[in-house]
Amino acid sequence: MSKLAEFCQKVPGLRGLYNFLARVHIRGVERELRKYGLRYDDLLNEQDPDVKKALEMLPEHEKQLRAKRFIRAFDLSMKKTHLPDEIAQKEDIWNPYLRSRIELIRKEKHRNETYK
């Protein structure tokens, strides 16, 4: 959490505003991801070494699904259209298929650094 976020959480008058704005932001991100059939983890920076390692750890089936989501999103974007709502609502955009692996990698890295 950033220092500004920590400050906003500590100040009683700002906590409610901060939480409201966070919910609005999350709904906006969710709406945009659903338009193209992407998941939140698809937006993670692939240049980050931890993300790269997590991508390598993915099962082949999950790699194929990820590639298909990117192709579909690119196709929809080029056609300036969106997924139909009945299809868009089926996707679990908050499924942490990559974040859980990244968290394990970072814990392992932290554990290795503390024992050196």
TrEMBL record:
GO terms for cellular component: mitochondrial inner membrane; respiratory chain complex III. It is found in: Mitochondrion inner membrane. InterPro entries: QCR7, QCR7_sf. Its main location: mitochondrion. It is a peripheral membrane protein. The keyword Membrane applies. Pfam families: UCR_14kD. Gene3D superfamilies: Cytochrome b-c1 complex subunit 7. One of its GO terms (biological process) is mitochondrial electron transport, ubiquinol to cytochrome c. Keywords: Electron transport, Membrane, Mitochondrion, Mitochondrion inner membrane, Respiratory chain, Transport. Belongs to the UQCRB/QCR7 family. This is Cytochrome b-c1 complex subunit 7.
